[in-house]
Amino acid sequence: MILRSGVVDRTVARALKVLALSSIFVLASITFFIFREGAPLVYRVGLGNFLSSDWHPTAARFGIATMVAGSAAVTAGALALAVPLGIGCAIALAEMAHPILRRILKPAIEILAGIPSVVYGFMGIVVVLPWIRGHFGGPGASALAGALILGVMILPTIIAISLDALQAVPRTYREGSLAMGATQWQTIRRVVLPAARPGIVAAVILGMGRAVGETMAVVMVAGNAVQFPHSMLDPVRTLTANLALEMGYAAGDHRAALFATGMVLFLIVVVLNGVAGLARGGRAKSGGEARR
Amino acid sequence: MIARRRLITPRSAQALASVVVWGTTVAAVVILVLILVFVLGRGLPHVGWSFLSRAPVDSGRGGGVLPIIAGTLEVTGLGVAVAAPLGIGTAVYLVEYTHEGPLTRVIRFGTECLAGVPSIIFGLFGFVLFVLGLGLGWSILAGAVTLAFMTLPTIIRTSEEALRAVPAAYREVSLSLGASKWQTIRKVVLPAAVPGILTGIVLALGRAIGETAAVIFTAGSNLPRLIPTSLLEGTRTLSVHFYQLAREGISAENAYATAAVLVLAISLTNVAAYAAMNRFMRRYR
Q: Other CB atoms closer than 10 Å to residue A85's CB: what's the count?
């Protein structure tokens, strides 16, 4: 009996280990298939072609530079909106809000993070585009529209993770600062924010990753023109939009080029996640020291 | 000693900072709540029994969404059913069978990365592997497995949290009574962690329901029959249906109504999940 349960235990442990590798396996197979489809094309047409600004798949010109610029423009705009709002909101909730208010708002914000991206895109179409047309003229569909919608979309991510980082700062830090006569704001600025900085940096980077990778909402509002944006009011096409728009009918080299686009996107996002992970890892270490 | 006169005293800085910080909070919360109010306010009046109980007519210009709700439940339900054993197994291994080490670090990093992979990449991957490579075509099965991969990190993380919340004393008592490790996990730890694990499954379901990019390239966008005869049939989920209605400008009324159904379904799912998690975590605190 004892022997049998020992055998069962070992078998289960082995089986669970295999299951535990499933996420690594999935990540590896995604990497493998995306690269297998995309990398040969980059090799075939040359890096120069691939990184040029000339995207004419029918003429075998597969430059993605305009799309990289498009992704950069909407992501930068989104961060410009979401970072101050998100961090401000996290500070208010963590440091100044009554606990009851915090207990209501924190889950509410996390629930809002679940609103599907198509709904945000639709909000963009019916609210943001007419507003831009009315105030700035033009078609409305633009980098600005994409940035506004993405900014709102990543707001919950930035608030939630920054809030966690702020709440992880030991209370004794605040008490020590206040006891020495610092005001609440001095305490926040000089003590709490520096202590929480790695987590807040991670929040911003993860929000950035979400903005870069977001697809449907951007397709719906950003205009999707293959061109370098000269102002935020120009329509842009992001890397993700390029995939979503052309995947349906692409074949041959064209499809391979889309996978190569996906490859670039995948690399950007994995690097961002890695950096965020490093930033947070730093927090875990210093947090451990702080808890003595 | 005479203090230097400063333009901005600590007290005025404090006042200014609170105004700014509260201002950003109000702005953020108002924007997010307005979206909810706007969608539900415009959509709910068009959501009635006839909308929920009829098939779409004329590619969504008229009629309702019943077969699409069915299609959504099939794809997401099957997807989460595939992801749950993988995710829970991973969590059990991480919490019960190992100590922190290189392997757990690799698994954690992989899970974090997977959580950050954009959904369109999952769509591409599912398209090339399941739809084309394995010849499943645009199908319920291809969509479900793709969603399973996408929701795996959610389930792993929540299950891990749930297992960690079970007090060590539970395990010690069981082991001291002579139960084996697996018996302890199966009969003591897992039952105690079930509410938390269910939270993760429900959250994953909510995420899957809201997903568009990964589904449209794997499950397709064909209008489904009410009851599919095989898992290899193509289908259309609510999000994809809504995307078609909104993007093609097919019917504003039905688009709002579909959005309302979608948002309501996901919000209720998430509220239920968080409420359950909250109660669960409090039990062991």
A: 22
Which distant-in-sequence residues (6+ apart) come within 8 Å of A44 by Cβ? A253
**Poorest-confidence range of A278-282, B73-77, B252-256?**
A278-282
Confidence of residue B11 (pLDDT cuts 50, 70, 90): confident
CA distance B41 to chain A (A): 13
SS3 B54: coil
pLDDT digits (tens, 9 = 90+) for A164-184: 999 999 999 999 999 999 999
Contacts of A260 in chain B (CB under 8 A): none
pTM exceeds 0.95, yes or no: no
Q: What is the dihedral of CA B269, A205, B103, A7, to 10 degrees?
A: 0
Question: Distances from the Cα of A24 to the Cαs of A49, A107, A264, B99, B113, in angstroms?
Answer: 33, 30, 20, 18, 9
Coil, helix or strand at residue A223: strand
Per-residue pLDDT band at B159 (split at 50, 70, 90) = very high
Q: Which residues are CB-neighbours of B65 under 8 A, at least 6 positions away?
A: B51, B52, B56, B238, B241, B257, B258, B261
Q: How far is CA B255 from CA A217, B156, B248, in A?
A: 15, 34, 10
Chain B residues with CB under 8 Å of A5 CB are 180, 182-183
SS3 category, B137: coil
Residue of A nearest to B239 (CA): A118
Question: In chain A, how many domains are there?
Answer: 1
List of chain A residues whose C-beta atoms are within 8 Å of the C-beta of residue B222: none
Quote the CA–CA distance of B40 and A158 in Å, as a whole number.
25
A117: closest CA among A238, A215, A13?
A215
- Answer yes or no: do B149 and A125 touch at CB < 8 A: no
Query: Mean pLDDT score of chain A, rounded to an integer?
Result: 88
CB A185 within 8 A of CB B8: no
Contact B235, B74 (CB under 8 A): yes
Q: Is residue A26 part of a domain?
A: no
Domain layout of chain B by residue ranges: 49-283
ipTM: 0.89
Considering only residues 4 to 23 of chain A, which have any Cβ-Cβ distance to chain B shorter than 8 Å?
A: 5-6, 8-9, 12-13, 15-17, 19-23
Query: Residue A253 sits in a domain of what CATH number?
Result: 1.10.3720.10
Contact criterion met (CB < 8 Å) for A6 and B180: yes
Domain assignment present for residue A193? The answer is yes
Domain housing A61? 39-290
- Cross-chain residue pair B112–A30, CB shorter than 8 Å: no
b/e sequence A266-280, b meaning 16+ C-beta within 10 Å: bebbbebbebbbebb
CA distance A167 to chain B (A): 16
The class that CATH gives domain B49-283 is mainly alpha
* B59 pLDDT above the threshold of 80: no
| Number of residues written out for chain A | 292
Rg (CA), chain A: 23
Distance CA B106, CA B112 (A): 10
Domain presence at residue A14: no
Q: Please, which pLDDT band fits residue A287 given cuts at 50, 70 and 90?
A: very low
Residue A28 lies in a domain: no
